[in-house]
Amino acid sequence: MSDVVVLNLDRPRELRFGHKALKTLKSLTGMTLLDIEKQLTEGNLDPDVLEKMVYAGLQQDARNNGESLTLEQVADLLDEIPAYIDIITAVAQAFVKSFAGDNAGNAGEPEVPAGKDENTISTKV
Fold this sequence. Notes:
By secondary structure, the protein is mainly α. The protein has one domain. The chain is 52% helix and 6% strand. It has 5 helices and 2 strands. The chain has helices at residues 19-29, 33-42, 47-64, 71-79, 84-100, and strands at 5-8, 12-15. A two-stranded antiparallel ribbon has the order 1-2. Helix 1 packs antiparallel against helix 3. The longest helix has 18 residues, at 47-64. It is globular and about 30 Å long.
């Protein structure tokens, strides 16, 4: 399972909510990630929050393509989407994927170090 969703804007762009994107999103909105998720699931997503979600989620794609993307540019790109629901759907899918990972988990199965009991968990590095 890929953790990106392709959003077709001026070009196909990868929408992804990695660690940096989530921190940026929290900083831009002043909301907790749970509050944002609640707005998404209740169908009550504020357009300003949606714009900031897209902005944060597209930053890695912009960096990978040698671009700088501003909130104003994102707003202009979103104006070109014919169906607003497509934006909401893509953002919701990418947001969920950021927490779901793949079937094995992002870091693999937890490993119990030698000499530790099974209640002590560390992740593989």
